[in-house]
Design brief:
6 helices, 339 residues, alpha/beta, 3-stranded antiparallel β-sheet
Length: 339
């Protein structure tokens, strides 16, 4: 738990033992700065031989003393009368976390936002009616991003988080152990072992640092559905959710919004971490209803169709309050928006 979001930790203990007048029991937290155990509560309120509720608290001002850089709190119960024959019994010891919600500092688009997606060809940086551009993080020139931003538009920067691509400048950073089977239809890409968070997250964090430096407002991490494919690794849905959560946390820590790119099987859990959805072909595959929780949560769905006429999918997309568009599979400049 990020300590900066916590107001206090409230200790709750259900205690059975002698009262303090007979035998003192102390509940202490370790002060790792002062290298000492500090009293949080004791058994003053205990009734002899009965279960008694004991409370204490650690306030936010003391977190730097008690919660270390790994977010670990050390705690103990100890008696100062070790020769007393009685012992203490506990059937509950817990901390309630009292926190104030953090106001997000990153871009959070809402339904009705219009997105233009383009990864090939010359980008018109001031398209009428377009509020956000989805562009490649690496291949898009800095001057293009600067021009988009100068025109008051938001920038979503794409990268593949779930696959290794042999043409990317950081491709040598991926050890062989995390590279799995070649992706079907993409001979230059291999699935990644998303369980290897300690290996992959520094690489992805470096990419997001680049996104911040280039002026991106959000990131669009692709291929987050490895566990549903033949990756060469025994990936589970839980593995994939943990990886997406780590990606989202890293993005938010840098002030970047983050998409759930396709990967609808990660809903509903992934909805809390995602700021919007980027989806390909939900109408073609009859999956669009799966994305309605985004709209309910006031988060937009940016829908892309390649093989359906706008007359076929636009009425349904508009009714669902999706921002939908027809694109070429090459994701070049051509686009027809539904609204």
């Amino acid at each position: 738990i990020p300590t900066g979001s916590i107001d206090k930790l409230v200790l709750h203990v259900n205690f059975k033992g002698k009262p303090k007048t007979i035998q003192t029991w102390k509940f202490q937290a370790w002060d790792h700065v002062g290298a000492a155990w500090i009293n949080i509560a004791d058994n003053t309120s205990a009734v002899d031989g009965e279960w008694s509720a004991i409370t204490g608290q650690i306030v936010a001002a003391d977190f730097t003393k008690y919660v270390n850089t790994s977010n670990i709190l050390k705690f103990r119960i100890i008696t100062t009368n070790p020769l007393t024959t009685d012992t203490a019994k506990l059937d509950q010891l817990a901390f309630d976390v009292v926190s104030t919600p953090i106001t997000p500092s990153w871009w959070q688009p809402t339904p009705g936002t219009t997105m233009h997606i383009q990864y090939a060809g010359t980008i018109n940086t001031n398209l009428a009616g377009v509020e956000a551009y989805n562009i490649d993080l690496v291949d898009t020139a800095q001057a293009t991003i600067n021009a988009i931003k100068a025109n008051g538009k938001k920038v979503i920067c794409y990268f593949s988080a779930g696959s290794w691509e042999d043409w990317r400048p950081d491709q040598a950073s991926f050890p062989a152990a995390v590279k799995g089977q070649t992706m079907d239809g993409w001979p230059d890409e291999k699935w990644l072992d998303v369980r290897a968070l300690s290996t992959l997250m520094p690489i992805m964090e470096a990419r997001m640092d680049t996104a911040v430096a280039k002026g991106c407002d959000a990131v669009d991490p692709d291929n987050m559905d490895g566990y549903t494919n033949s990756t060469g690794f025994p990936l589970t849905r839980s593995d994939q959710l943990a990886y997406f959560s780590a990606i989202a946390d890293a993005a938010h820590e840098r002030g970047l919004g983050v998409s759930l790119k396709n990967a609808m099987d990660l809903l509903p859990e992934a909805l809390a971490d995602a700021d919007f959805s980027v989806n390909e072909q939900c109408h073609e595959y009859n999956e669009c209803s799966t994305l309605t929780p985004f709209i309910t949560a006031n988060k937009p769905v940016f829908q892309i169709e390649y093989n359906r006429a706008t007359s076929v999918f636009c009425p349904a997309s508009n009714s669902a309050n999706f921002d939908a568009q027809k694109k070429n599979l090459s994701l070049d400049a051509a686009a027809t928006h539904c609204r």
